[in-house]
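I am writing to request your help with a piece of structural work I have in hand. What I wish to show you is a protein chain and, alongside it, a tokenised description of its three-dimensional fold. Could you please explain, in whatever detail you think fit, how the structure tokens follow from the sequence? You will find the record immediately after this paragraph.
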Amino acid sequence: MSEMKPSLVILAAGMASRYGGNKQTESFGPSGETIMEYSIYDAIKVGFGKVIFIIREEFAESFKAAIEPKLTGKIELDYVYQSLDKFIGGRSLPAERAKPFGTQHALLCTKDALDAPFAVINADDFYGFEAFQLAYEFLSTAAADGKYASLGYELKNTLSDNGSVTRGEISVDASGNVTGIIERKEIFKQDGKAITKEGNREKELPLDTKVSMNFFCFTPAFVNWSEGEYYKFLDANLNKDLKAEFLIPEVADTLINSGNGVVKMIPTKAKWFGVTFKEDAPVVKAQLQKLTEEGVYPSNLWA
């Protein structure tokens, strides 16, 4: 497996409910680039061999039409469709359920497409070149079944000025292995501080707290292992909680706590930015314009 170049899996099937539009295919770069094209550009630059897009089948045609003319011949492309009825194992779906079952369910849908160690990222997040360098290095030299990694961003580099965000707070042991990832559902900026809500109580988080931005490094074994966990999740939630989601950080947390593997935290000082809210869009455009002017990226990524 080590001879194979790592793959990049991009989560692009989300509903973007808070954003109110299809941000995966929206233009942000100076020549109309989407955010994920910057991730793909960085991944190609460091040596990834394939991109696997997880999308919804109903917009596959328009998605491919937007992406293929730019990327064909630059990196191998593959597509996987996430839908509610995949991996349901004979269970019946509640009629009211509309949203897919979350990011780890999306990853499970790639089960037959994976043939190498891989990194997984969100389509609508900008992660920075250093993060891809670090991920590639780990996947090429250290990744093994049961030995995985999470990129750890500094909280201050990941906040939005336009509302609260969800971040996975990472705890590590003395060896730098993740001991837990706590999903903090509501973190916001206030007077230069990061505040989170715990029930009705507000709590300050240190600005250098390491957080997960859904940038993980796994081997296909992690996805295979998660299938059993998914069936447990469905049995616990299918008819009780119409909004329940099977999320990568929570499944990684289960893996660690059940002794089925270790997840190393790879710290990065890269600045993350993304579009959670409509108001984030002009900020992201300005940041990409600045990186272009500084010569970090060409003004047209694929020219």
Notes: The chain has a mean pLDDT of 91.
